[in-house]
Amino acid sequence: MTFEVLQQALKTFGLSDRVSLRQIKTRHRELVKRFHPDGGDPDDPEQIRRINAAYQVLSEYCSGYKFSFSREEFFEQIPEERLREQFSSDPWGTR
Fold first, then answer.
1. Residue 58 phi, psi dihedral angles, 5° rounding
2. Which of 9, 56, 81, 89 has the fewest CB atoms within 10 Å, i.e. the most exposed one?
């Protein structure tokens, strides 16, 4: 797999550079429903093959991805927790 192939798969799905696995799966289901030959767009029968190939590329990339459970990544993924930690202490003892 090359970076260009990965980018083409994202383009096929209409996704941005930062997405969750859940978003990929949801988008795949939407596209299959829309373009499946049995009920979708009969004008482009190759579209379902492109969608499934793109899903294969994205799935392969995600299955080999190493997740970061570092503090920095945690706060990147859940920014409201950074704010909670930052402002939850009461330096004046009014609580």
1. -65, -40
2. 89
